[in-house]
Design a protein that fits this description.
heterodimer, A: about 260 residues, alpha/beta, six-stranded mixed beta sheet, three-stranded antiparallel beta sheet, 9 strands, about 25% strand, B: mainly alpha
Chain lengths: ~260, ~260
């Protein structure tokens, strides 16, 4: 099978007048269609930089990034990006927030709006369409942010620690929630996180990065032997702990 | 829960009392000042020719109301202030947007803006009179000149402090710089724009009065200068009192608009 996303030998440095900081060094990995990848690494190792490269907001100094054989452009319509915070705009209602992407791309067609309607109903935000973001719980806000991203029907989702701003209880529920939604919509995704258990619970493969300049230290395929796997059920699988230890040991070398 | 507990009731009562006390004190302070002024003038403790008195100011006020000359002066000053305020707001937002879209331009212009902002604008007024003539246009320009540079700097600084992550959101959704401006920067700067407007209205009034001092035949600024030159100090003081009321009224109007916008 042909990979959806090919990252080959990618390097990038940040330049300031004080000097040059190498962020990524000769990074190589693939993402297969329908696959959920998690990227873990020491904090500040350049995980977010990697996502900015994939979605075309930054361009690589060396190496190539190809999605279905073409280089992603800035704001590529094929790629949806969820940032660390939901960034729902307080001066807009929930409905105006989830349609923001369509409004920007001038794609407020009836078919796309219907898709949004469907998602609002399926994911329980139907009654809150006229509410302001501040009236919603953390979990509901995260769902609204996800609908805003999915409304553009991206072929690939990038998740930059989207649960890190939530408290632990909400975080478990929301990651389970989002994991199920992504599976249901059949979207491949790359999740960047510093939380090892979150990575194992959601991903098909976990990519471990070294400290800066980051390169791929190891790729671990997660096979928990579950048929209908969800992030919460994954946490109860017997192999969960051994994967945790494996990745934790690997990461510890780079702290 | 509509029924308050006794402790809560007591607390609310205390808050209300404190509020009333402050209101009453304010009014008493004002009345006390007026009464003291009036008595001092009547008993000759102060020279009423120079310091006038509240009653004389009131009589002059009524007289000028009757011959309607006061309406013209107030109207002119008010109109000039409002026109220069509108220009200041439009020019201020426009320039700040331009600087935000083009950071290089803002770097080039920064030292000039700082100098122009800290320059006492009253120094410019004589020049403006010579260049533009002694007319209403000059006075409006004087009003703008006092408020514009500060408002550009404040607005631009505010625009730049808008959450960069929110702007990144627009980029990831495929938006342009224009989308960042209209969807993020301007909407999130509405409170800032309103507070800058509140400062501007006062500054425009200052500029207009400076302009009227030098190049007007009508307006409260003219009335003040004319009164001081002819030793009609009652005129001067009356004009100052009216200016106080205009300043308060304009500020209150903007405050009302601000509250209305925030509520939405």
């Amino acid at each position: 099978m042909k990979p959806l996303l090919e990252i080959r030998d990618v390097s990038l440095s940040y330049h300031t007048s004080a000097g040059e900081t190498p962020a990524l060094s000769h990074l190589t990995f693939d993402l297969m269609p329908g696959e959920f990848l998690a990227v873990v690494g020491p904090s500040g190792c350049g995980k977010s930089t990697l996502l900015n490269l994939i979605c075309g907001l930054l361009s690589a100094e060396e190496g190539t990034i190809l999605m279905n054989d073409t280089v992603p452009s800035p704001g590529d319509p094929r790629i949806g990006y969820m940032l660390q915070k939901d960034h729902l705009l307080e001066w807009r209602t929930i409905y105006q927030n989830v349609t923001l992407g369509l409004e920007i791309r001038r794609e407020l067609t009836s078919a796309k709006l219907e898709y949004i309607e469907e998602m609002l109903c399926t994911y329980g935000l139907d009654k809150f369409r006229n509410a302001r973001p501040s009236q919603l719980s953390g979990g509901m806000r995260q769902r609204a942010a996800l609908i805003r991203t999915l409304a553009l029907k991206p072929e690939l989702l990038l998740l930059d620690e989207p649960f890190s701003a939530l408290d632990y209880q909400t975080r478990l529920n929301v990651s389970d929630d989002i994991g199920r939604i992504l599976k249901k919509e059949g979207k491949p995704a790359i999740l960047v996180t510093h939380d090892i258990s979150e990575a194992i619970s959601m991903a098909d493969r976990v990519i471990i990065l070294t400290k800066r300049p980051a390169t791929v230290a190891r790729i671990v395929t997660i096979d928990l032997g579950l048929t209908d796997r969800t992030p919460l059920s994954s946490r109860n699988a017997p192999q969960f702990k051994s994967y945790f230890n494996l990745i934790w040991k690997e990461l510890n070398q780079y702290v | 829960m509509s029924e308050h507990s006794p402790a809560q009731k007591q607390y609310l009562l205390r808050v209300k009392r404190e509020k009333n006390l402050i209101h009453v004190s304010r009014i008493l302070l004002f009345l006390g000042f007026l009464i003291l002024w009036e008595i001092s003038a009547r008993f000759g403790w102060i020279d009423s020719f120079i310091f006038s008195s509240p009653s004389e100011i009131w009589i002059t006020f009524l007289k000028m109301l009757k011959d309607q000359s006061l309406f013209t002066h107030i109207g002119i000053t008010l109109a000039e202030t409002l026109v220069s305020f509108v220009f200041t707001v439009l020019l201020g937002i426009g320039t700040a947007v331009l600087l935000w879209t083009c950071p290089r331009l803002s770097h080039v212009l920064e030292p000039y803006l700082v100098v122009l902002n800290s320059l006492p604008k009253s120094a410019l007024a004589p020049l403006l009179i010579v260049w533009l003539g002694a007319n209403i246009r000059t006075i409006i320009v004087a009003g703008i000149s006092v408020a514009i540079f500060g408002s550009i700097i404040n607005l631009y600084t505010g625009f730049r402090e808008v959450d960069p992550e929110k702007q990144k959101l627009i980029q990831t959704l495929g938006g342009s710089k224009k989308d960042e401006l209209t969807k993020i920067v301007l909407p999130s700067s509405v409170p800032l724009i309103l507070s800058v407007m509140k400062v501007n209205i006062g500054l425009c009034l200052v500029g207009v009065i400076i302009g009227e001092f030098i190049g007007a035949r009508q307006g409260l600024g003219y009335l003040i200068i004319y009164g001081s030159q002819t030793f009609k100090l009652t005129w001067v003081l009356m004009s100052i009192v009216i200016l106080c009321m205009i300043a308060m009224g304009l500020y209150a109007a903007l405050d009302l608009i601000e509250k209305h916008v925030r509520k939405r």
